[in-house]
């Protein structure tokens, strides 16, 4: 983006210089070619002005995108990572439940089995909560990105 901004400024400066050059020579040349040079110099000056007017909205859009990327995307990424950790814990607790159920001794191991069942329910609840958070954040991220671009294009 920085290179684009720099090249935009350089191009606008070159167009302005070319417009001045053509204007100066158009004043000396009173033929039809002089009139054409004057017209082209006006057009070049106008395009240079428009190119420079393009710069502030581009800078603002770039800043908004960077802010969006650093805040919203980073927040969503951390939620996804927490959800993946919860999923791993849930899968581990299911394997633990499977192992406890195969080694079930009704008199001695029933309390352990219930504890494992409780752990599975707890990790499942945490996983489901984080999964819903991730879905909501991704939907919100998509909508806010669309709104950001829509607002940037409207102004």
In short:
This protein is an all-alpha fold and about 160 residues long. Helix content is about 90%, strand content about 0%.
Looking at this protein, list some descriptive labels.
single chain, 3 helices, AH_dom, AH/BAR_dom_sf, 92% helix, mainly alpha, 155 residues, Islet_autoAg_Ica1/Ica1-like, AH domain-containing protein, Substrate Binding Domain Of Dnak, Chain:A, Domain 2
Total number of domains? 1
Structural class: mainly alpha
Mass-distribution shape: rod-shaped
Query: Uncertain spans, ≥5 residues at pLDDT below 50?
Result: none
Count of separate DSSP helical elements: 3
- Radius of gyration over alpha carbons? 32 Å
Tell me the CATH superfamily: Arfaptin homology (AH) domain/BAR domain
The H-and-E topology, N to C, reads as HHH
Ends apart, CA distance between termini: 20 Å
Q: What's the architecture in CATH terms? A: Up-down Bundle
- Summarize the biggest pleated sheet: none
Give the CATH topology. Answer: Substrate Binding Domain Of Dnak, Chain:A, Domain 2
Number of strands: 0
Report the top-level CATH class: Mainly Alpha
Averaged pLDDT: 88
The helical percent reads over 70%
- Strand composition percent: under 5%
């Amino acid at each position: 983006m920085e290179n684009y901004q720099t090249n935009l400024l350089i191009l606008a400066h070159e167009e302005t210089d070319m417009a001045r050059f053509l204007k100066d020579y158009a004043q000396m040349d009173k033929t039809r070619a002089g009139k054409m040079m004057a017209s082209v110099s006006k057009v070049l000056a106008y395009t240079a002005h428009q190119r420079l007017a393009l710069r502030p909205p581009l800078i603002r859009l770039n800043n908004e995108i960077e802010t969006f990327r650093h805040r919203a995307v980073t927040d969503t990424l951390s939620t996804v990572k927490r959800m993946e950790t919860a999923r791993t814990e849930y899968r581990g607790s299911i394997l633990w439940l499977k192992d406890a159920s195969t080694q079930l001794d009704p008199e001695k191991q029933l309390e352990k089995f219930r504890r494992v069942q409780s752990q599975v329910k707890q990790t499942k609840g945490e996983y489901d909560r984080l999964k819903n958070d991730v879905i909501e954040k991704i939907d919100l991220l998509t909508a806010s990105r669309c709104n950001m671009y829509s607002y940037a294009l409207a102004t």
